[in-house]
Amino acid sequence: MKPSVKNGVALFSPQGFLDSNNNSAFLSIDDIDATLKLKVDMVLVSMKKVIFFNRNGLDIFIKLFIRLRKHTQTIVGFCDYNHKKYESIKKFYKDDINFSLFRTVEIAHLFSSNFKEENKSILLYSSDKHQRSAMAIELHNNGHNPIIMQTSNEFESKKQDSDKYDYIIYDTYIGEMGNKIISRVRGNAIIYTVLSYLDTNISDNFNLAYHQNSLNVGFRLFIFDAYKVTSMNIHALNFFAKLASSGAEYNATICFAGLTFDKTPKIFKENLEDSGILFYEQMDDILENKKLLKELGGSSSANIKTIRSINKKSVVELPRFINATVATIEMMTNSKAIKEAAEVHKIEVENKENKIASSIGYYGDIDGMVILVFPIDIAKKACELLIGESTDDMELILDTLAELVNIVGGKIKTLLSNDDVKVDITLPRTYQNIDSLLEVVEDKKGVQVDLSFNDNKFLFFLTR
Amino acid sequence: MVTNDDISDFIQKIPPTSKILKETIHLLNIGDLTKAAKIAQEDLALKSYLKNIVNKPIYGFKNEVNDVSQIFGILGISQSQQTVYNYMINLLNPSKWLLFKLNENSFHELQAQLSAKWSIILQHLKIGNKDIHSSIALLPASIIVTEALFCKYIDDVNLLRNTKALDYNTILKRLCKLSLFDICEKISIEWEMDKIIPTILQSSSGLIISDDEKINTLGKWMHLLLFYELSQTTFVEANLNDFIDFQIDYVEDIYEDFTNIMQMDK
Prior knowledge:
Number of domains of chain A: 3
Number of strands of chain A: 22
Order of helices and strands of chain B: HHHHHHHHHHHHHHH
CATH architecture of chain B: Orthogonal Bundle
Number of strands of chain B: 0
CATH topology of chain B: Hypothetical protein af1432
CATH class of the largest domain in chain A: Alpha Beta
CATH superfamily of the largest domain in chain A: STAS domain
CATH superfamily of chain B: Hypothetical protein af1432
Distance between the termini of chain A: 36 Å
CATH architecture of the largest domain in chain A: 2-Layer Sandwich
Oligomer: heterodimer
Structural class of chain A: alpha/beta
Helix content of chain A: 25-40%
Structural class of chain B: mainly alpha
Number of helices of chain B: 15
Radius of gyration of chain B: 18 Å
Number of helices of chain A: 18
Radius of gyration of chain A: 23 Å
CATH class of chain B: Mainly Alpha
Mean pLDDT of chain B: 89
CATH topology of the largest domain in chain A: Transcription Regulator spoIIAA
Number of domains of chain B: 1
Largest sheet of chain B: none
Mean pLDDT of chain A: 84
Low-confidence stretches of chain B: none
Low-confidence stretches of chain A: 302-307
Strand content of chain A: 25-35%
Largest interface: A-B, 39 and 37 residues
Shape of chain A: globular
């Protein structure tokens, strides 16, 4: 069984009966190896469609969890269960729960470092006060507002007003959590939350690939939320200095918000400033100051000094990229594509109205970025298969479009690997209008292919 | 991905029932086991299938049963009709399974397990109607339909399911506005099966709640039985566990009864 992967969470969804007779069938050696190679924050097993299970049935997943924890900082556990199942799992493993239990997969996302939303109002209760505190801290660190209930009665009474809260957390248990540095996106800025004492571990806990991908897809402003940092040593200093110099190629800006130097040598600040890192007392000093935000590159992503153009390597692979894209859109819309024109120039989008876009980067043996520009109607149609119904909810459409472009990226990766060209793909990015896309790519040369699906124009652009 | 043309192609390729099969079913319908056996043994493939199925351990016969009249005699009218229908479904089997890791033997095993356990369930529910007995035969057709429609698109399906846990029935419904069970219903119409058979099958999808309480109950038992079987090692390894969505809430009220019967059976 293979998991589905969304927003950094890999989810296994077994169905029916899980016991000692069949447990090993759910996870083959290949499945375990493939899961170990996934670059995700969480690996969860959904119990939603499991009608019967016993300890032996769950053991195969526990073995996977142990291997994952040994090799990575991945958060592991079960989700999507009712109270009865929650109690059963806790009873089976009462002395040895190193994994987490999330009542729903949506609640699990709140604890993931890749969760895109913040400032959620969350009613929280656990009979275990240590768990209450641990969950509250994690949620707070992820940018949410947990409201902690101390007693069951208090919780039951507040729970009646469920409309007041975005999420209600109970029957949830957090085991060993990841130490990864949490990242969240605010407009065109990426915010990393760093905590306590920063030392050599920062290079292990910082997701460098994610950072690099963010640079590749056009993010230029990176803010370290450092309110809870007590101090740092020379290893952390070196890490930030290197990060700043590697970002210079992209004209990226790195800032610290809320970092105090009470217990950190003042010379560190000077060294970091020499590397180009900026310091602000409050996060809002940056995010609420539109002029400053623009100067720092957080309102747009256009001010790239080093413009990289399409190269021969990418052009050679172009047919594969187009085939992957066309095949995916054809698959999702069940309609045929007609290729109308292919030219090398800067991106040209006619009639910017009612169009949305998405991009995905790839890096490895070759690198570059695929950009897709959709008329909204085609995007809606292409997303219907994933959503299950027609919708006008733009947030949902953009979110689903990101999934669709992820499928395109996956297909590109597969097609290239058939020719021994190894690449990884970045997280997809979506653009609600063409102007925000142009801020990222308008100066870049690339191959533009105009396609037509049922007489609707669709644009494919490959650049670096 | 799968289109309505693929579905039309599949339906057009459903083989017509032969004269022998039609006559056998007619004779079983009127309860003439002796004549039915005489006719059935003229179809060597049917004869071989009947022997193969009936001699599986699940039927529990100590000595090998070879003669068709002996087989029909042992099975009785209801189970004989069910087994002949199983044979007909078997005619749709692909020459090579690509999407699911199945083969002729494991598919026969699934048919045998479902049939035998369905009989136990109907005994528990005190239902003797032979068409209701036969209704289980149509259920594995949904697996054959999935294999036939999706085997050309394995890579696409894998990419799609890597992003979102969509079952084949949902994919098909969203793409073509037809479910796997609708296509199975078309097979039953093509083969002139009794109307109650596709009705129970539709209900067993767990997605269509019948107004007829009796049909609804049978649908629940069939749905749970399917997932009981799809949780067996062979079928989990064949990637069948999540080929359609298990509707856990739908079967909740019969679950205790179901486990009691299956445990008694062990």
